[in-house]
Amino acid sequence: MDTARLNEIVERYPAPAGKILGILEQVQREVGYLPKDILQFLAKRLEVSLSELYSLATFYSFFTLAPLGEHVVTVCMGTACHVKGAPELVATLKRLLGVEVDEVTRDGKFLLTTEDNHFSLTSARCFGACSMAPVLRVDNKIFGYITPDRIPAILEQFGWKESQHRGS
Q: Model-level pTM?
């Protein structure tokens, strides 16, 4: 995204209330994520610190600082899901997709993307679907009462093929 386009987006939000969130949302909608160089430009342009923009981008779960795969698989790690097996779902998904956790944040979040960019695997604190725990979401579709053996059939709905993704 070039600076002219970024300036157009900034100028669309003259009011201070919600200005930064609106700008970040528009950038992510167009780019797909919030790259560091764009955040650096926006910090200067908006006269705020880079750490303030980074704090907002990491606080709100709908923002991402890394490119996402074509399909995003999110495992709920809320208390009910965790107790009913969410960690086993994450382990199964990592194995089936052939991805590993390189970095986990203090709150347990991670973002992994397959080499072919077809899937990204991440976690969320709660989906508000505790009665169906454990729960996972692929893109915007929620799946409840998940067990590890149900995961391949779910992934297949989104183009997963065992021979292409399965880790060793």
A: 0.74
